[in-house]
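Hey, quick one: can you model this chain's 3D structure?
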Amino acid sequence: MRRSLKYLIMMKYTAIIKEIEDGWYMGQCEQIPGAMTQGETIEEVIVNLKEAIALILEDEKADFRKTHRGEKYFRRQIAVV
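Sure thing. Here's the predicted structure for all 81 residues.
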């Protein structure tokens, strides 16, 4: 029996990070409006921003599937450069 293969696609996003009050940092994703976070260090902002992006993408995926439940559609992976 063949097992189906799952492919991991790594996407690259641009993080915009700036220092805010009290030495904290605020970051947001240039490509995904709403993906914003803050942290005490730049590294913490990056970790938090990755989590925010993943949560937004999963939420969008769930919303799409809920909206189109029962409909026939085709799924294809595409690459954008």
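One thing worth noting: Residues 15-62 form one domain.
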